[in-house]
Amino acid sequence: MSEKRNAAIDCLRQQARKIAARQPGADFYKDFAGEVALSEDYFQTDGVVCRLRAFVESVLDNDFGHGMAHSQKVALDAGALVVIEGRASYFSPHFITEQVRLAHCAGLLHDIERRRHDHAKQGAIYARKVLSEYPFSAKEIGDICVAIANHEAFATPEKMSTSACKLLSDCLYDADKFRFGPDNFTHTVWEMVEVSDISLQRFVALYPRGIEFLKKIKHTFRTPTGRQYGPQFIDTGLTIGWELYDLMQTQLDLSV
C-alpha cells in the first residue's frame, strides 16, 4: 500500500469516527444494561469460554474487519440476547446460563473461516472439530454449529430442531448484524480496504451499493429484541455512511 493511499484511508477512518461520536448510543445497551453486564461477566469468568477465547485469538486472522475484536463483540451481544430472550420465554436460569456459554462459543468461532467461500458453512465444519475437544454434549456442539452455519444474511437457514437451537441461532445472527451499524464505518470497512488492492476511486464508486446492502440487512433481524433494536444500529450506520460519502465527494482528495 502506498503511503498516500494509507494516509487517505486513515483520514477517512478518522472522519467516520468523528461522525460516529456525534451519534446517540444504541438504546439496546441502555435498556438492557443488566443483561449486557451479565454476559460480560460470564465471558470473562467461564473457564470453557476463556479457554476457547485464547485458542481463537491464536488462530483467527485479524483482518477483513472480522477479527478478534469483532468476534468478541458478537459473542457478548449474543450472550446478552440469549439472557433477554430466554427470560422472555420463561426458560430456567440454569438453562439460560448454559445457553449463554454456547452463544459465547458460537460468537467466538462464527468467522473462523472468514477467508473461505461459504464461510458460514465452512466455519460450522471447523467449529465441530474444535469443539470436540471441549466439554460439550453432541447436541450442544450441534446447536453451536447450526448457529454458525445460519449467521449469513440472505441465505436459507439450516433446520433448527429445538427451541434452544433456534434461540442460539437467532441470537447469534442478530448480534452479528448489530455490527453492520456504526462498527461497519468506524472499523470494518477500513480494515477490508487496507488489505485489498481496490483503488479508492473504485471504492467510492461502489460505496452506494454497500449502503443499499445495509438497508436490506435492517429487515432481517430474527429475535423480537433484534427486530426492535437492530434497525437503530443500521440507521445510525446509514447516517454515518451517507455523511462520510458526502465528504468523500466534496472535501477529500482520493486520487491515490
Uncertain runs: none
Note the run of SSEs as H and E. HHHHHHHHHHHH
Looking at the structure, the CATH topology of the largest domain is Hypothetical protein af1432
Structural class: mainly alpha
Q: From the 3D coordinates, which CATH architecture of the largest domain would you assign?
A: Orthogonal Bundle
Residue fraction in strands: under 5%
Mean pLDDT: 93
CATH superfamily of the largest domain: Hypothetical protein af1432
N→C terminal distance: 10 Å
Number of helices: 12
Oligomer: single chain
Helix content: over 70%
Evaluate the radius of gyration.
19 Å
Biggest β-sheet: count, sense, barrel? none
Number of strands: 0
* Overall number of domains: 2
Query: Which word captures the global form?
Result: globular
Text of the CATH class of the largest domain: Mainly Alpha
